[in-house]
Amino acid sequence: MGEVCNKLILFPSVFVFGDFVLNACVLIRTSHGKFDDVAKLLRQLKSVKRIFPTLGRFDVVADVEAKDLEDLNCEVLRMGSFIGVVFTETLVEIQT
After folding, report:
1. If you average pLDDT over residues 76-85, what whole number do you get?
2. Is residue 7 part of a domain?
3. I want to staple 77 with a disulfide (CB 3.0 to 4.6 A). Which of 4, 30, 55, 61 is the partner?
4. pTM of the predicted model, to two decimals?
5. At a CB cut-off of 8 Å and minimum separation 6, what does 94 contact?
6. Which range of residues forms the domain containing residue 45?
């Protein structure tokens, strides 16, 4: 799990006052037979608060907390680099 973010241009930081946490669901498609390997790697990430298997186009969902978009970007790129991950889609929570 190397530093994926170091060589990439990241989103600008979001400036927010007070205690703020950016929440997102990362939908992950895994290679056949790789769910357990990917789930094990996801559990090692501090930003992942919960993971669960799903039926359908995606195999696993990871609930992620990040301090800003840059932090979220790094975590999602890290997840996408795991062996066994085919692709990801990220749903970022918005305030209404």
Report:
1. 96
2. no
3. 4
4. 0.79
5. none
6. 31-87
